[in-house]
Write a structure and sequence with these properties.
Blueprint: E1 2-6, H1 10-21, E2 25-29, E3 41-44, E4 47-50, H2 59-67, E5 79-81, E6 86-90, E7 95-98, H3 102-112, H4 116-139, H5 146-150, H6 167-174, H7 178-185, H8 204-212, E8 215-217, H9 221-234, E9 238-240, E10 245-251, E11 254-260, E12 264-266, E13 269-272, H10 276-283, H11 293-298, E14 304-312, E15 322-326, H12 333-338, E16 351-354, E17 369-377, H13 385-403, E18 411-417, H14 419-426, E19 458-460, H15 471-488
Parallel strand pairs: 1-2, 1-13, 2-9, 6-15, 13-19
Antiparallel strand pairs: 3-4, 5-8, 6-7, 10-11, 11-12, 14-17, 14-18, 15-16, 16-17
Flavin-adenine dinucleotide (FAD) binds next to helix 1, strand 14 and helix 15.
Length: 493
């Protein structure tokens, strides 16, 4: 088949290689100048910033993907296990390191509360079992009906998990201290969700970051993107950059042409990796859309983000590679992110600072640091220069106080990327950074489908679809679609 892939994010790159491997003629059409999508690169004055993902988690999932081609990630890039995995600055100024050694983390949890280490051990055992079951029974499977999902072995597999229990409730039942609760809940941010709204089965995130560990691909996430791009080119995929898709021509329930800013492409099948909501609302005529505008209006969107890419002419010794600043009263801040009625720009928010130059000499010149500062923002907020500067200074005030040194006086590169940039650069619905959130009603069978409900040769992969948000999940989403195409030749009539 002649397959057009719209978008060269991880979802598009990974699907294109699989289709090409399977003998199809594949063209990827991307609106921006680079592959990688949310994982774009920004370079200025020898400072190189990964604009999106910075945590390389779940190395097994990357391995599974490369194995599809008889390859290993190490054929393309080297991985380093970070030690410490990450550093946590609590609001009260306490600072702790989460280690790749579980023993050390048990000792740390003993300082948080009585029997903290033992409780963590039990928690991680449960998270580990759940992870194994999820990989086997859930992540690689496309659920087509609710009963299919509920009757799966996963949810009942000796876990005694209440599907309706929130992660917050699950954690609070087991841990008393604020520190333990925060360390076990922060990672839900990776899923664009809040602990109160996310099902407890997602406690697998603690297995992922604590038991499996946190890795860094040498050369940054941009090296993973360029590897995936090289793999696609090796497989024979053709790429068009700087060419936004404008519409799909659909006749008799089939897409037969993709119309772009530069021309038209005949096709037998289309895989959309571009934001699902954008493609439905902006590229497909109303009567062929699988979901109504109201459907999109009522989804719980994952947050947008304020990201500052800052290069400084000195090294911040007190910071490690990954640094989380978790403020004291964080739970009532979640409302401002997820409840559209309460949404507003944050005051004294929790935030994350990534310093890849701590590990990677290609990130910035010697004796300097690259700072990637991220604050989650509610999607759909009004975005103004004044709001951005106010938030930048709010975070810098806090950061300078925590590290006890001047940073703003040493800035040589500064770029802020926020809500409106997500819309402009990625066509992100409401400026979301991550697509739709992982609430229970937006998990597995309840995520937007891989196959169009109306158009027989139209498919989707990427963070909106099952299994969801994060680079490893987007790789799996493409593996699911490639399987389907092999099964039914792209025709789901
Ligand atoms: C700031 C940030 C930090 C993150 N941190 C992590 C992390 O640490 N670890 C992790 O695993 N994940 C992280 N994520 C999530 C991860 O980056 C995403 O889940 C994943 O990259 C999404 O890939 P995708 O292919 O679904 O979408 P995208 O990457 O958005 O790809 C879609 C592509 O479609 C293109 N496109 C859109 N419209 C059109 C059109 N009309 N025509 C042609 N092309 C179009 C876009 O330009 C884009 O290139 C982070 C995301 C962000 C934004």
């Amino acid at each position: 088949m002649r397959i057009i892939v719209i978008g060269a994010g991880f979802g598009g790159l990974s699907a294109a290689s699989l289709f090409s491997r399977d003998g199809h003629q594949v063209t990827v059409i991307e609106k921006n100048e680079l592959p990688g999508g949310r994982a774009s690169v920004y370079s200025e004055n020898d400072f190189n910033f990964d604009m999106g993902p910075s945590w390389y988690l779940m190395p097994d999932i990357y391995e599974n993907y490369f194995a599809e081609f008889g390859k290993k990630p190490e054929d393309y890039y080297e991985l380093k296990k970070l030690d410490p995995s990450y550093r946590v600055f609590f609001g009260d100024k306490k600072v702790v390191d989460i280690s790749p050694s579980l023993e050390k983390n048990y000792e740390l949890f003993d300082t948080f509360e009585e029997n903290g280490g033992e409780k963590l051990k039990n928690y991680l055992e449960s998270a580990g079992e759940m992870y194994e079951s999820s990989v086997k029974e859930m992540l690689y499977k496309d659920f087509t009906s609710v009963s299919d999902f509920l009757s799966g072995k996963l949810l009942f597999k000796g876990m005694k998990l209440n599907i309706l229990e929130s992660l917050d409730h699950f954690v609070n039942k087991r841990f008393d201290s604020d520190e333990a609760r925060k360390v076990l809940e922060y990672s839900i941010g990776f899923l664009g969700s809040s602990p109160q709204k996310t099902p407890s089965m997602y406690h697998i995130m603690s297995h992922i970051d604590m038991t499996m560990g946190v890795f860094y691909p040498e050369g940054g996430m941009r090296k993973v993107v360029s590897s995936m791009y090289d793999l696609a080119v090796e497989q024979g995929v053709d790429f068009k950059f700087n060419e936004p898709v404008k519409s799909l021509e659909i006749q008799e329930k089939k897409v037969n042409k993709v119309i772009t800013s530069n021309g038209e492409y005949d096709c037998d099948m289309v895989l959309v990796n571009a934001d699902y909501a954008h493609s439905e609302i902006d590229l497909i005529p109303d009567k062929h859309q699988s979901y109504s505008n109201k459907y999109w209006e009522t989804r719980v969107m994952a947050p947008s983000a304020f990201v500052a890419y800052v290069g400084i002419d000195k090294v911040l010794d007190k910071l490690d590679h990954h640094n989380l600043f978790l403020q004291e009263d964080w739970s009532n801040k979640f409302d401002k992110l997820f409840d559209p009625k309460k949404a507003e720009w944050p005051d004294s928010p929790s935030y994350y600072v990534n310093i890849p130059s701590r590990t990677d000499s290609t990130a910035s010149p010697e004796g300097t640091d690259t700072l990637f500062i991220l604050v989650p923002l509610a999607p759909g907020l009004e975005d103004t220069e004044e709001k951005r500067e106010e938030l930048y200074n709010m975070i810098m005030n806090d950061l300078e106080e925590k590290v006890n040194e001047d940073i703003r006086g040493h800035v040589v590169v500064k770029r802020i990327f926020a809500l409106d940039d997500f819309k402009r650069r990625y066509n992100a619905y409401k400026g979301t950074a991550l697509g739709i959130s992982h609430t229970l009603r937006q998990t597995a069978v309840w995520r937007p489908a891989h196959k169009s409900k109306k158009v027989s040769n139209l498919f989707y992969s990427g963070q909106y679809t099952h299994p969801g948000i994060g680079v490893p999940m987007t790789l799996i989403s493409s593996q699911i679609v490639a399987e389907q195409i092999n099964g039914n030749n792209g025709d789901n009539k």
